[in-house]
Fold this sequence. Notes:
Blueprint: H1 3-33, H2 39-69, H3 76-86, H4 91-132, E1 136-141, E2 147-152
Amino acid sequence: MNKITCFNTLQKALSVEIRLTDKLLALLKAEGKLSPKDSDALLMMSEDKNKLIQDIEHNYNKRIAFIQALGFTADHKGTQSCISACDQNNELSLKWKLFMQKVKDCRQMNQINGSTLDTSLRVVKQALSILYGEKINENTYDASGHSQSSSIGRSIAKA
């Protein structure tokens, strides 16, 4: 395969992946603005995220198959080597860096959203345990870094 065909194929693949990660990042930002109590909207967003992730994986697999067909490895280093071999005026390298930054931004936003939902779930569980008089086992750490369990719980009906 010649360098121009390689360049065009990778440029198209990276452009598609950048567009898809832009969509995913926008969806993650919108998800972060939702209340954890809005379960219907969160469920719809989850379905949209899954579809986008499938599209991203499909395009990733196509790009990796292309890179492997050229004799490069399917890892990060192989991708960078292929990009270097096919690049023109540093365009592919810049697209690759942009794509990697967008993936990083998506990962960070997803972690923030997950943490927010986890915190909300923990608060709900604590409230329910107080109402029903169940014990909450919370793992904490002592001064030496060893885990210790503490139990909290008393029925509001008994209080």
